[in-house]
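Dear colleagues,

As part of the handover before I leave the project, I'm documenting each prediction I ran so the next person doesn't have to rerun anything. This entry is a single chain, and its sequence is reproduced below.
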Amino acid sequence: MRPVVGIIGNASMINDTYPAQTTGTMNIDPVIEICGAIAVMVPGIPDNATTDELINICDGFIFTGGRPNVHPKFYGQKETPAHGQFDLGRDEVVIPLIKRCEEIGKPILGICRGFQEFNVAFGGSLHPEIRDIPGRINHRMPPEGTLEEKFALRHEVEFEPESIFTKIFQAKKVKVNSLHGQGIDVPGNRVRLEGFATDGTPEAISIKGSKGFCLAVQWHPEWNASKDMISSKLFLAFKAALNGERSFSSKEQLVG
């Protein structure tokens, strides 16, 4: 039986009238093509299933990107226009799910919004618009252009010495795309900042003392992952964790 990977869905509207739960096919493709797993979309609807029920169904989870932002009430702040749109249903599903998966060592990978959810789940906070911070660049998705242009590589990420990401990518730096407005403000408890953009924005994190694969990145490695050597390595590491071939110790070292 192939592993089952839960992909977190987003609330959306079809034709601006029909409520739906969706995920992009680019989130599904690397699960099938690289991980050799079965992709199952998990609706961001709290009444659909409990955290334990989801964990019993899935062998691992990918917390994907999404246009709405994590509601600031989950990190002790009040809602403002700068925080943008929200998806409270997703927030209520993913935050306890991330905590529980990390606790038991269930493999989880955070991407973009998922990266931000990891930080919030462990008590951290987010800045609503990092391009407003002096010295930071605009990390948002280009407003115009094709998908290829929007997901084009835009800046480097440099990893800390002895980072687990250096071991996965076999490189101290990688070049990545950039499609986010928010970012980490205060790191959560046990959140280890492992990689930074050229302007100092955190881009890769792990969780200190985690029992299993528990990593997140701020960029979108799922875009054309099977054709990109760097992205493929991240999903191959996730695949190995799904299959029980490797684990990540509290010292963030690969264990065969």
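The chain has a mean pLDDT of 90. The chain has one domain: 4-255.

All the best with the project,
I.
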